[in-house]
Structure formats: C-alpha cells, structure tokens
Amino acid sequence: MQPSPSLPAIPLPAGIRTRHIDDINGLRMHVLEAGFETPGRPCLLLLHGFPELAFSWRRVMPALAEAGYHVIAPDQRGYGRTTGWDVNYDGDLASFRLLNLVRDALGLVSAFGYRTVDAVVGHDFGSSVAAWCAVVRPDVFRSVVLMSAPFAGPPQLAFNTADAPSKPQFDDPVHRELAALPRPRKHYQWYYSTREANADMHHAPQGLHDFLRAYYHHKSADWKDNKPYPLKSWSVNELAKLPTYYVMDLAKNMAETVAEEMPSAGIIAANKWLPDRELAFYSAEYERTGFQGGLQWYRCGTSGVFTAELETWSGRTIDVPSCFISGSHDWGIYQRPGVYEAMQASTCTRMLGCHLVDGAGHWVQQEQPAEVSRLLLQFLRRAGPSAPR
Fold first, then answer.
1. Buried-most residue among 164, 193, 225, 229 (CB within 10 A)?
2. Is the predicted pLDDT of residue 168 greater than 80, yes or no?
C-alpha cells in the first residue's frame, strides 16, 4: 500500500519504491524497497539509527539491488511513516526494548516470505538491533554488518557469587563526576532519556530544519574537529574528551549544543551528501512525528529495566560472518572505551573486516555511499553463497 496522499512524496533515486506492510508485531511498517522486480532474490535488511530514517539508505540501495539482492529498509519502530507505536513519554516503553525490535525485524522479513536473510545491516542504534538479530536468530540472519556503533556483546550475569555475593547495583558515579567538573557536563544518552529532550529538539529555537542541519554537520567529516582516538576507560576525565554532541555542557540542551556549530551558508550550499532539498525530507518527517519514538530506545538502555532479559544470552558471541564499517572521523567507534577492540577480539568470532572509511564521519552510508556499497558487496561475497529462499 502506498503512503497516505496527505504525505509528500519521498525524493528517492530511481529503482526504489515506498510501501506499507501491515500487521508487523502491532505496526503498520513503512519500508523502502529495491530489487523487487525479480522474485526469488536473496534478501538484505537495512536498519537505520537516530535521528535518521529508512531514507538514510537511499544511496546504497540501488547498488545492492543491481548486484542481485532484494533490499528492504524500514522506518523502524518510533520513526517516520511507520505507525502503531506509542508517541507518549509515559507510554509503553517495553515495546521499544531491543528484543522487541528484533521481533519487528523478524516479522518484517517473514512477511516478505523469507526464512533467511543474507545479511542484516545496521547503522548507529540500528547496529545494536542488527547485532541482537545475529545473537538471537543466527539461523535467520546469516551474516551481520555493524556500522558506526561497535557491539559489546550481551550483558554478563553475576558469576561465582554463591559464597561471595555480588555487589549491589548502584547508579554509575561517572554522571555525578561529570556534573561536578569545573566545566559541568552530562552524557547525551542520559539527556536523551529526560522528559524535556523531545521538546528541546522538536521545538528548537533555531527551527527543526536548522537543528538537524547543525546536528548532522557536527557529527560528520565536515566538522574538522572530529579526529577520534581510543579512550583509556569509562571515567570522567576520559569521557570529558568527547565532543559536546556526546558529552554535553550540563546547562545546555542538544539544540543549544549543536547551534554553536551551525555551518555557514557556503558550507551548506557545497554539501553534496545531504543537500538542503534532502534534509528537508528529514525535517518534514520529524516535524510531523517528533523525536520521542527514537528517544524511547535510549531510555530502554539507560533505565536498566530490560537488562535482565538480555542476560539470558550472557556469554554468547556473534558466530555468523560479520564486519564493521564506520567513518574514520566518527567518534562513535570509541565512545564506549574498549568495545571496538573487544568486538574484534572476542565478541564476533567470524569478523571478516573492520573498515574506517576516509572522508566520512558518523553518517557513513550517506557521506560515502559508493565506498560503503563496495565494502558491503565485498563482505557479502566473502560471507558465502546465498541460501535458498
């Protein structure tokens, strides 16, 4: 089914169509689709992050379809033209937890008639969903590509505590320590979990369009101070080295934070990876929906409420073929100290490559789509032949 006539057309390249799929785990899911003309193709599932949409894959989908794949990219739960999720801060938080997002992905590919998917590819928070797809259902998701957000593995159960009980849970002191710095700070994920965050961005003083322009610019290779390096530990002095879009000034919200890095009119006009006419689609969609759906994902993580069910997979690794792709100017590689290294050493047992793409920051598939497409196809060839549908 096509989107409502009241919604504007999506500025998509030739060969990509938009449609809705009903009854996906309680959702009416909006998807972009390429390579749909020929039945029986192997399937690729592309999962976006925050604050993006299925639209973020528009420049890699044609190349993947041309290589012979049926490519499916949904607006995930909480985003865009997918409906059926609770828009309220005080609504059903549990529906946004990672295992239910995996259930969304599984239901979508099943609705398309696939019992296996050649690869699930996730960017940013979509990387976490893709990783959990590979942990929970490796029989369905036969390989996984993680982009811009390394995977730490399932949370560990307390071990050998029968005679030496584990320490009681307590709040992470790093947040109090950040707030006590001479220049007081706060971590963006905990800010995103506050009641105020959605309105701060949705009703940004500079306007939502300019908010998104500054946000995307600040985390891209276009912002010249994005020169990431590994941090030594999850500690106040190390975290304080992160850019302000990750570790913010305590008194500022995200709209105020990125407004300080708003690019000039000349830089905006020269932007080829996200020209204003394409940014206008993002801003129109978020003007309509707000940001709370995506922010609920962060709340699931920072609250710790759903950690216990993830501990069911404690000690499990990703054993399907995997790879990691990020921009070389992306601080997301290192924002959780040690995770990038652990992912390669132990979390992913069949890691076929880690690629840091020149000329890209956090939005790697938008900033450098040709290189990302090449790396994805290279990985798919190495990961093995397609399974029957």
1. 193
2. no
140 neighbors 117 (Cβ within 8 angstroms)? yes
Which token pair is 83? 């409906």
Nearest CA to 148 out of 129, 126, 128, 123 is that of 123
| 348 beta partners | 318
Q: Is the peptide bond before 62 cis (omega within 30 degrees of 0)?
A: no
Phi, psi of 83 (to 5 degrees): -125, 165
| Number of domains comprising the chain | 2
pLDDT digits (tens, 9 = 90+) for 79-94: 999 999 999 999 999 9
pLDDT number for residue 4: 52
- Which residues have a Cβ under 8 Å from the Cβ of 291 and sit 6 or more positions away? 51, 197, 198, 201, 202
What pLDDT, in 10s, does the model give residues 278-323?
999 999 999 999 999 999 999 999 999 999 999 999 999 999 999 9
209 and 108: one domain?
no
Q: Is residue 130 domain-shared with residue 179, that is, in the same domain?
A: no
What is the CATH number for 115? 3.40.50.1820
Same domain, 49 and 103: yes
Containing domain of residue 269, as a range?
A: 173-295
CA pair distance 45, 102, nearest whole angstrom: 12
Residues 291 and 206 in one domain: yes
pLDDT score for 170: 66
- Alpha-helical (H) ranges within 93-230 are 98-111, 125-136, 173-179, 188-192, 197-202, 208-218
Q: What is the pTM of this model?
A: 0.96
Place of tokens 């390429």: 34
Alpha helices, H only, 203-304: 208-218, 236-239, 254-259, 265-270, 276-289, 292-303
The residues near 283 (Cβ < 8 Å, ≥ 6 apart) are: 208, 209, 212
**Residue 162 resides in a domain:** no
Residue 347 DSSP class: I
Q: Residue 58 in contact with residue 18, Cβ under 8 Å?
A: no
d(CA 254, CA 196): 11
Distance of CA 111 to the CA centre of its chain: 23
Q: Do 274 and 362 touch, CB atoms closer than 8 A?
A: no
Yes or no: say if 81 and 28 are a contact pair by the CB < 8 Å rule: no
The pLDDT of residue 6: 80
Average pLDDT on 343-367 reads 98
Residue in 200, 291, 206, 175 with CA at minimum distance from that of residue 252: 200
